[in-house]
Amino acid sequence: MKSEAYLFAGVAAFFLLTDAVYIWFAREPAGIAALTVSFGMSAVIAFFCAVNYRRKGQRPEDRPDSEIHERSGPLDFFPPHSGYPPMTGFGVALLAVGVVYGLWLFLIGFGITMAGIFGMVFQFAGRDD
Fold first, then answer.
1. What's the mean pLDDT when you consider all of the chain?
2. How many CA atoms lie within 13 A of 63 on its CB side?
3. Do residues 22 and 35 make contact, with C-beta atoms less than 8 angstroms apart?
């Protein structure tokens, strides 16, 4: 995480420098706000990476002498098939079309989207993996 912290600290420094130059020459509020937010977001990521590095130390992929098996292990359960992701996508499409054509279509899309999301979340809730 140390290299990621340095990387994002460099990005934050770039946005801070760019923001200062932009404030001095352009004085345009939207650009100033965008560059300030970009600096803040990259600084938060750099801070997060630095704190994790200090708390947990080096990861196996940070050391040149590490072995592959140091990071391996069980990943997670991946469902073999599910109809809920297409249902959720169809519901989101209806939501977007409902914004244009009316509240009735938006509400139908909202219902289908929520059914798809709840289905994805609770489809394998009883598994004991």
1. 88
2. 11
3. yes
